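Narrative summary of target 7.
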Amino acid sequence: MATHPIDLSTRVIDSGVVDERLNRVDGDLWELTDNVAIVESFSHCVAVNTGDGLVCFDASGTQSGAKVVEKLRTWSTDPISHLVYTHGHLDHVGGSGAFLADAHSRGTRRPTVVSHEAVLPRFERYTDMSDFNNLINRRQFGGIRADSGLGIGAGEIAPPAGAGGAGGVAASSGASGMAPFLPADALKPDTTFGESLSLRVGNHAVEMHHDRGETDDHLWAWFPEQKWIVTGDFIIWNFPNAGNPQKVQRYAAEWARALRRMVAMGPELLLPAHGLPIVGKARIAMVLGEIASALEALVSQVIHMMNDGATLDTIVHTVKVPEAVLAKPYLRPLYDEPEFVVRGIWRMYGGWWDGAASRLKPAPDAVLGAEIAALAGGADVLIARAKGVAEDGNMRLACHLADFAGWAAPDDPTVHARRAEIYELRRKQELSLMSKGIFRAAARESEAVVKRHQ
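Modeled conformation, tokenized:
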């Protein structure tokens, strides 16, 4: 039997020792206090029984929504009056069709869907960029095994339906052969707001507040009478996802300010969309404050160096988060990582150009690779050097050299076999899921070249 999430979070926070998975996605339902339950999934669904129907926060993903609803129904058969999207990411909205199906099967009114107003434009972008989003999710979630021991649950590495990779691909549609990224049965919001929204549902007052953080459409909810706070992805029990290398802009400074706003409310029960709920005013304030401080330190250091005229290259290799901070159970860099957050801060305040003049209007990769290979004496010499550098432990440089060799010899199976080996070694040495996924994708690119010649 799994440990109750409140017991686990209390023990882990108070001791600093992680001896169980913290991001559990097995579909278990737990009652946390009277009239509050959580289904641990990807993402979680938080349910509050108001006496006049259930208010549910997040619908989980396309593949998990039906199981979430099934588990909720073991806890309460009351109608679901409201479904609140903390933000529009697919693992929070993709399962909403199951909530509609539940209402239809019971002959009750469909839930009123509540979100920030920017969720609707996000849905439009997901439709416009459907194949691209499928491709980047396949890459992001394709580099780590469920049994890796990183404290990340199996469902957390499986892309939503249509994303490919570890989770498989749903029934395909369209010329691309990929399923639509946003499922057709995903419910659009009925009620939206800009900065805040106050509701009274049954016996409960609930306030919705907008802040930018992981997304531009994020909300967090506050139950003032009970002092409960629903945080969505402002808390993920990993280092904040504020620098995802394949996704749109994140907002590190505003994320930190949102956490400070939450601390000021004095919450006594924190309900996240990933990871564990937390009980206790002082404990919650400590966790929120330390996450805010980590983000604030990165923002401050990057802006200071930008004002001093430093290039992105200098900043990326200078600004660090202390290891003691990264060892905190709720700040481990197992998903995103500080180096990527630094790049996100640069992009927020400095644009896309990194400060190197040659990269303002660069030569094509293939041309650059061919020239460097020619100078080295051939792509085979270059990839051999890459292998030696990797064996010496300098994986950053080894990957540069391997890419140059691969670009110079795009159809050479020997070069690409070695390139695949280098990137697979790099993947195994990384902690964050994002790095592992991208490096595994690079290995697969070269493995495909090798297979064509077998």
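The two ends are 48 Å apart (CA to CA).
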